[in-house]
Design goal:
Elements (H helix, E strand, L loop, with lengths): L3 H16 L3 H4 L40 H4 L7 E5 L5 H10 L4 E6 L2 H14 L4 E5 L12 E7 L8 H11 E15 L4 H5 L1 H5 L6 E2 H10 L3 E10 L4 H4 L5 H11 L1 E10 L12 H7 L10
Parallel strand pairs: 1-2, 1-4, 2-3, 4-5, 5-6
Antiparallel strand pairs: 5-8, 7-8
Helix pairs in contact: 1-5
C-alpha cells in the first residue's frame, strides 16, 4: 500500500473524476469510484429520496448510510459535513437547521467544492458554505459545531484517529456527531487490502470495527451508539479482479465481514439550559398566605 500522501493523491484524482460524472455512472461502480462492476447498482449507498431537503443534483451515489437522518439536527444548529462532495448531506442538514442555522461542508477535492458551490447557488442557500481542506486538519475553529456528520469518508483517510480528534476539537461541549462509514470484521485478503483502487473505492481503507470505536472512545467521546449496521456484499465480478475462485468462496463464507455502520457519540460538557431549583430559597421567599394556613 502507498504512503499517506500517495493515497490522498489517488483519492483526490478519483473523486475529481467522479465530480464530473452523473449518479447513474457512479451507481454502476464500487462506491462510485471505478467502472469495475458491470452489475448496475451501487453496493454501498442508500436511498435519500424520501429525506426532506434532498436535491438530486447533489447526490452522486457515494455514501454508505444516511447519517443526516440519525443526526438529531435542530433548528438553528451549526452543522459540519466531512467530505461534503457535491453537497448532498449539507442540503439535507440545511433543511433541519432552517435559515437560522449554518452548514459547513469540508472537502479536499477542488472539483467537488466547485460543484457543491454551484448547487448551493442554484438553490439560493446563503447559510451553506463549502470550504476546501483536509479533514485531518479542518479549516474550522475550536468549539464551533453543534453537530458533525459524514458519509463514507473516514475510510478514505489514512489517519482516521487524527480525524476523530479533529471532530472532538470542532464540536461544542455537549455537541455530537453521526457518521456512516465502512468497517471490517476479520482481515481482508491481501490482494484487496493492498490495492489502491479498492482503497479509493471505500473498501481496503476500512479498519476493524473495534479499532474504529476505540478511536472514538479514546478521543473522549461519550454515549457511543451504533445507530444502524448493515452487511456490504461485493459483487463477484469485482472480487474476480483480486481473488481466484477459491478465494471468492472463502471471502463469501463469512470469514470476513464488511459492514456499513452509522455511529453516534457526544462530546461531554455543555450547560443545562434549565437552572436548578433551590427549594430552600423558594421557601424563604414564599409569601405568607392568609392567617391560619401557614402553620
Amino acid at each position: 500500500m502507498q504512503n499517506a500522501e500517495e493515497l490522498k493523491r489517488i483519492v483526490r484524482e478519483k473523486y475529481s473524476e467522479i465530480a464530473t460524472q452523473d449518479k447513474e455512472m457512479n451507481s454502476s461502480s464500487c462506491c462510485g469510484s471505478t467502472c469495475c462492476s458491470d452489475e448496475v447498482y451501487n453496493i454501498m449507498s442508500e436511498d435519500y429520496t424520501e429525506l426532506k431537503g434532498y436535491n438530486p443534483e447533489a447526490d452522486l451515489g457515494l455514501g454508505c448510510g444516511l447519517p443526516t437522518a440519525f443526526a438529531k439536527i435542530k433548528t438553528g444548529d451549526v452543522v459540519i459535513d466531512l467530505g461534503s462532495g457535491a453537497g448532498n448531506d449539507c442540503f439535507v442538514a440545511r433543511h433541519e437547521t432552517g435559515a437560522e442555522g449554518k452548514v459547513i461542508g469540508i472537502d479536499f477535492t477542488p472539483a467537488m467544492i466547485r460543484k457543491a458551490r454551484e448547487n448551493a447557488e442554484k438553490l439560493g442557500f446563503h447559510n451553506v458554505e463549502f470550504r476546501e481542506g483536509d479533514i485531518e486538519a479542518m479549516p474550522v475553529s475550536d468549539n464551533v459545531a453543534d453537530v458533525v456528520v459524514s458519509n463514507c469518508v473516514l475510510n478514505l483517510v489514512p489517519d482516521k484517529q487524527q480525524v476523530v480528534q479533529e471532530i472532538y476539537r470542532v464540536l461544542k461541549p455537549g455537541g455530537h456527531f453521526s457518521i456512516s462509514d465502512i468497517v471490517l470484521l476479520g482481515e481482508l485478503p491481501e490482494a484487496l487490502r493492498q490495492d489502491a483502487e479498492m482503497y479509493a473505492g471505500c473498501v481496503s481503507g476500512a479498519i476493524q470495527k473495534k479499532d474504529y470505536l476505540r478511536f472514538i472512545e479514546e478521543a473522549g467521546f461519550a454515549g457511543i451508539t451504533i445507530q444502524k449496521e448493515k452487511v456490504i456484499d461485493i459483487p463477484d465480478d469485482i472480487l474476480s479482479n483480486y481473488l481466484d475462485t477459491e478465494g471468492i468462496a472463502s471471502f463469501k463464507s463469512g470469514a470476513y465481514g464488511i459492514f456499513s455502520i452509522t455511529v453516534y457519540a457526544e462530546k461531554p460538557g455543555g450547560t443545562d439550559k434549565t437552572p436548578a431549583i433551590d427549594l430552600s430559597d423558594m421557601q424563604a421567599k414564599k409569601p405568607c398566605c392568609e392567617p391560619g394556613c401557614c402553620n
